[in-house]
Amino acid sequence: MIDTLRLTAEAANDLLTAGEVSSDELFSAYLAAIGERDPELHAYLHVCDDSPGEGIPIAIKDVIGTKGVPTTAGSKILENYVPVFDSTVAARCKARGLRLLGKTNTDEFAMGSSTENSAYGPSRNPWDPARVPGGSGGGSAAAVSGGLAPWALGSDTGGSIKQPAALCGHVGLRPTYGTVSRYGVVAFASSLDQVGPVAKNVRDCAFLYSVIAGRDENDSTTVDVPAVELPTLEDLKGLRIGVPKEMNEAEGIEPGVTAAVRAAIELAESLGAEVGECSLPRSVEYGVACYYLVAPAEASSNLGRYDGARYGLRSDGADFREMLMNTRHDGFGDEPKRRIMIGTYALSSGYYDAYYGKAQRVRTMIRREHADVFEKFDLIVSPTSPTVAFKLGEKAGNPLAMYLNDLLTIPSCMAGLPGMNIPAGLSEGLPVGLQLIGPQFSENTLFRAGHALEQAIGFDIVPERLR
Amino acid sequence: MNWEPVIGLEIHVQLKTRTKMFCRCANSFGGGPNTQTCPVCLAFPGALPVANKRAVEECIKLGLALECEIADRAVFHRKNYFYPDLPKAYQISQYDEPLCSNGKLAVPTADGEIVIGITRAHLEEDAAKNVHVAASGRLHGATATLVDFNRGGTPLVEIVTEPDLHDADTAKRFLQLLRQTVVELDLSDAELEKGSMRFDVNVSVRPAGSNELRTRTELKNMNSFNFAAKGIEREIARQIRIYEEGGTVEQETLHFDPTQEDSPPSRSKEEAQDYRYFPDPDLVPVHPPAELVEKLQREIGELPGARIKRIADTLSFYDADVLVTGGLDKLWSDVVAAGADAKEAANVLSNQFVAAGIAPDAVNAGELAKLVAARSEIPRAAFDEALAKVGDAGFTAAPYLAQKVVADTGELDPIIDKIIEANPGQAEQFRSGKDGLLGFFVGQVMKETGGKADPRVVNERVRAKLGA
Ligand SMILES: [Zn+2]
Known about the structure:
The structure holds 2 protein chains of 2 kinds.
Chain A: H1 9-17, H2 23-41, E1 44-47, E2 57-61, H3 88-95, E3 99-104, H4 138-145, E4 151-156, H5 162-168, E5 171-174, E6 194-199, H6 202-212, E7 240-244, H7 245-248, H8 255-270, E8 274-278, H9 281-302, H10 320-331, H11 334-347, H12 353-376, E9 379-383, H13 399-404, H14 410-414, E10 419-427, E11 430-437, H15 443-457
Parallel strand pairs in A: 2-3, 2-4, 7-8, 7-9
Antiparallel strand pairs in A: 1-3, 4-6, 5-6, 5-10, 9-11, 10-11
Helix pairs in contact in A: 4-5, 6-15, 9-11, 9-12
Chain B: E1 3-14, H1 53-65, E2 69-70, E3 77-80, E4 90-93, E5 100-109, E6 112-125, E7 129-133, E8 144-148, E9 155-161, H2 168-184, E10 197-207, E11 217-220, H3 225-244, E12 253-255, E13 266-268, E14 278-279, H4 290-299, H5 304-312, H6 317-325, H7 329-337, H8 342-356, H9 365-373, H10 380-389, H11 398-401, H12 409-422, H13 424-431, H14 438-448, H15 455-466
Parallel strand pairs in B: 11-12
Antiparallel strand pairs in B: 1-9, 1-10, 2-5, 3-4, 3-14, 5-6, 6-9, 7-8, 10-11, 12-13
Bound molecules: zinc ion.
């Protein structure tokens, strides 16, 4: 009997290598789990009956293009869209024998923090189905946490891997910008989008990162990546950890979250890390505002291609202009429309300097502020999300409250830096996430620290109600 | 009042790289609609552009030929607008950080040269092609638009001049010189009929001596240099007329129908579009290495403008201009080096040779030199026949040189007498002063002799016999 709730990808692979299970048996076990729990969790938008490959299964977020398998990006405008080519990350997974279980739910075009913006209905948190799994990658998070996939790929623009991982109690890495190809990934905000692993533990996360990372000739923004080291050490000797004041004492951080994160920091100290306070005042103050200019500006341009002419939804019209307007009116939900409007405004002549131009300058400042901190520290820590998982509908009517969810994940995204969530403990029976952020290309440091802390914390990743 | 025209040009040149600007599709004509396409140039979700390195090099090379500064850092921008031939809803172009800027092209003239400032030369991608269809197959009453994406994403260099041009003729000569430069650098076919070179012209006029820039109009769709010159002249005259009648020129675009050269252009008011330019985050800035720029600079030979000036020292400016902009000057200098007279060779090349439509590269200069030298000694028919074949593989002049022209009056006089006898009316008119009829008689003699008569001798004898 395969316990999909607990089985890590590494353990699954060991079983496979030892010949104790077959690839088909593994695949079927997850299909069975999906059959059992996905009606409640709605982690998947599309489930594959079968997939080629000899290895272990994987779930992929629905913004990531998969050849021959529907890729909707959570939007009606791409309903029935089936890519004719694989994204580079999907191709790399395939090349390693990973078998596609299905496509996971996402806020429309990855715009959201709860999956409530999915055109196909929200996913639910395996710890409490009345609560959101976070977003935009709530589907991948619910799948991994709910035992519906051993691991998954997510995408992160301002926190879409890290925040759901925090809310569902597992590991998620947003890699350094440029280490993972965006080719074939439905674009939201090109200068911020990064694909990353969603996993049950840090070693799985590191392994999956090694599968997808590396230069891709189809994505000019990718670079060569240092060899990935699977973490083994259980101490943190010699590691300097900074605790940015503004990110740990920000208004709106729940006391239970602060307590779990404090406890984790103390553990780190006891494992030999040198812990010190630091400061990122401007990054925290301006990060969200800056993000909500840059990301919508790029999105307003990236979403221009959905015109009904070549693929996806087409609503008729008397001429091209009318067809275009009708298609976009019918196909986009409120959140993409909101961001297209904000972004179009921010790029307009006469406003460019005041908005997009200034946001880019602030972004440079955020980068510098982080670089200064990393002169003294190897990594910094904070809560990933100011709150534990909130109830469905609780913030859906208030976009600004929803945007502030990403207050702590956004600054490092703006700086292009890697960030990882590991579970730090529980607050009121719900997972609390610890965010580890390092300088560019410091993934190995994050893996090392995350792994040691994970061992010391001993968090049980299986949701209590499913144990 | 005296008026000074102010003219600026915007030229698009399609590079002949093997692949498109941002994807690996073939950059070539032919093939059925939408056969040269891929997820990138069809703008499928997630597809990303990758800049064509060769195109970047070729743009730099053209920039160097135009004496531009080559940027240390050039950026691709997105120019956003919705149109069915633009699948991403933005064109990747360059905005405030172009590859090449601040250059110039000197246009040689009979009295010195006119230096035209080049504001910039940058890279961008071409749009696809819309085909409007209806039952009748014509635009009028079209029921649908089909899009052929084969051309979409092919590389273009856009060259923008300063408003330094002040007459239609210089504009035309600038365009010819630029075209020849691009062709010689092997960057583009620059064929106007195929659209691989296109240009728009901005025209305004101002009181002579003033520095103001008045409202300009934009002339589009002109597919020949002569047509452009005519269009510019007409537009200049129209604007002057408006001002002299106390009116104002409106900013508008004039679309010429290349198939109806004499009909007036259609006009359209361009709505001020906000293209929402911003740096394309999918592409990294281009940093051309100094070694590359130096290497490209070394690959550039003596440019057409310089050659016109050099050759004009030997020939007239007019001949030099025709030879160089016609791509004939290399053959000319080879023929001269092989012993032909410079002026004679220039005449043959810029007249009969051009008319025969022979590719200069195919010609053996030594054999052509022999023909040019013997031009007056062999029958005209033999010369014309030889010239028509001078580009054939293995051509030799010898058989034609063996045919001698008939200059013997003993042989020619009876023929001339017969012709005068047969045409008494014309003979009478010629005697009474209608000198133009000389050509008629010479032509008849040439016809009678199968083109072998020496025209100079025939001229002389006809005059003598008709006592004129
Ligand atoms: Zn293509």
